[in-house]
Amino acid sequence: MLVVVLIASDCEDPVEVAGRYRILHSFHRRAAVAVDTLRRVALKPWDGDRPQTSRTVLKQDVIAARGLSFNFVTERISAPTDWCSAADNNHYLYVYRHGTIRSMETLLDWGPSGRIPPIPGDIWWKPAGVSSSVLMQGDTAGYCEIAVPRRAIGDPELISRVKYRNPLVHHLVDAVCSVADREDTVAQLLKESSAETLRLLIVDAHTVGRRPRQDERQTLDAATQSRIIEYLSDGLDSEITVDSLARLAQMRVDVFIKAFRQAFHTTPYQFLLDRRIEQAKTLLVTTSLSITEIGTAVGFPNPSHFAATFGRRVGLSPRAYRRSVR
Question: Is residue 47 part of a domain?
Answer without folding.
Answer: no
